[in-house]
Amino acid sequence: MQTHHLEHLRDIAHAQIRPEKQDLLQTLSAACLAPGTKLGPAESALLSDIFRQLIRDVEMPVRRALARQLSERDDAPHDLILMLADDVIDVSFPVLAKSKILEDGELIGIVSRHAKQHALAISQRKTVSAAVSDALVETGSTDVMVSLLGNDGAKIRPRTMQNLVSRSKDIKELQSPLLGRKDLNLDMAIRMADWVGESLRRLILNRFDISEGQLRAAVSDAVLEAIDDDIFGEMEWSPAVPEGPTEGPAVALLDALSHDNIALFKRSFEATTNLTSAWAERSLYPSPEALAIASRAIGLDCETYTRILCHLHSSDIYSAFQKSPLYARVVQYFSSLTEDSASCVLESWQEIGGK
Is residue 179 part of a domain? Predict the structure, then answer.
């Protein structure tokens, strides 16, 4: 570092006056940014101390230029880089996106202290550690999560990937970037196949080299495994409002139930779903979730489904059943199903338990 430039910076810092923007930038550049200049530990510490004294008087264009020029330097003063990283996004962006000097803990702290623009900049770094990725996902920002998923240099833990897969059911913007990740495995893709559109289902088929039938069977197995493990039973939901009046097959089914003719109901339901009585008795009727899938697949609305469930589980008074924790949970689960995904699962069940 050239001594006379350093002395000039020291004079500016101790003068307690606002320096001229161009003069300060030229002096900073000559002192530490000129090609070929190297900063030793003592010089870095001195420059950081000087800049800390000047920071309140340094105008944004100067801070922005300094951040841009220091962002790719390995010998930049750590304290100075940290100050620039903690600045407004117009200043901090190049440092957050490029500087190798910032440590994971510092990046995570910046994510927690600032709005999403700082997190977006961090998500674009050449490499992002798993710990920093966790912090970025925890922001809940769709833009940040999409940016992170699009970064091949970002490491994402399996449990964080599972979290993102779950979120993709409601946040469609995550679906395509997730399917482009090399660390998305087949099990995760199968979960997504239950709710993605046709073009993304085709992408799953092509990427994992499986047939449509294999995918349907895999989705069915995943649903049955979740039901067997009582995964849905651990969820807590808020009640949703049932849908409107029933039509189509619902009329005959509800008529049978209203006359307490369970045998007629089961014959009608099994005929509509094209499932055998033995399979339905073993796998369909005992499970509220499996019954929800079959009901959604044949076009029943939520109220019809819950009335059927009420009768099959021997809850004589429907109004009392509506106040139960089970009702709140199954209504929310039914509402989360799409008819297309439910039909896909029902087709798989028909292959193994159909007539």
Answer: yes
Rounded alpha-carbon distances, angstroms, from residue 37 to 81, 280, 300: 17, 78, 74
Residue with tokens 């369970």: 262
pLDDT at 57: 59
pLDDT at residue number 327: 84
Residue 224 lies in a domain: no
Domain ends where: 102, 128, 148? 102
Q: Which of 72, 102, 132 represents a domain boundary (last residue)? A: 102
Structurally, the chain folds into a number of domains equal to 3
Domain carrying residue 38 = 1-102
Q: Is residue 146 part of a domain?
A: yes
Whether residues 334 and 262 share a domain: the answer is: yes
Query: Percent of the chain scored above 90 by pLDDT?
Result: 28
CA distance 2 to 279: 85
> Mean pLDDT over residues 271-277, rounded?
88
In degrees rounded to 5, what are phi and psi of residue 354? -90, 175
